[in-house]
Amino acid sequence: MTVARWRLLRMWGIQTAGFELERARARNSDHSAGSGAVLAAVTFRNLADNSRVLALQLRFEAAYDRQCNRALALLLKLRKAPDSGVPVDPPLQHTTETWDDDSQKEPNSPN
Questions:
Q1: Could you tell me if 7 and 31 are in contact, meaning their C-beta atoms sit under 8 angstroms apart?
Q2: CB–CB of 45/29 below 8 Å?
Q3: 54 in Cβ contact with 47 (< 8 Å)
């Protein structure tokens, strides 16, 4: 949950920095005479029209938000019934299990 939240915060920082960078570019162009709202609109339009960065950032933000929410839901589920023997979906595994070397096993052998 912490990693998902950190990634979400990092994505928000990237979005902010990207917007500030594009706003600085717009300020140096012909639109420098506009108000803050006009400058923000020009910045947003430039980002939306000239690259796919906004769609990519939104996709990552949504994924990180879902990860964080799923982890929180699982934590709350575990806190509610810690010793009741209720199976948790997905089953919890030790993280080292994902690093076991299965390459030595034959493809169709039972173990």
A1: no
A2: no
A3: yes
pLDDT, one tens digit per residue, over 34-86 is: 778 888 888 888 888 888 888 898 999 999 999 999 999 988 888 886 565 65
The conformation of residue 34, written as its DSSP 8-state character, comes to S
- pTM of full prediction above 0.70: no
Do residues 64 and 2 make contact, with C-beta atoms less than 8 angstroms apart? no
d(CA 64, CA 56): 12
DSSP assignment string, 60-98: HHHHHHHHHHHHHHHHHHHHHSSSS----SSPP--GGGG
Q: How many residues comprise the chain?
A: 111
- What lies within 8 Å, CB to CB, of 16 at 6+ separation is none
Question: Distance between CA 42 and CA 26 in Å, rounded?
Answer: 7
Domain boundaries defined on the chain: 2-99
The pLDDT value recorded for residue 70 is 92
Average pLDDT, the chain: 78
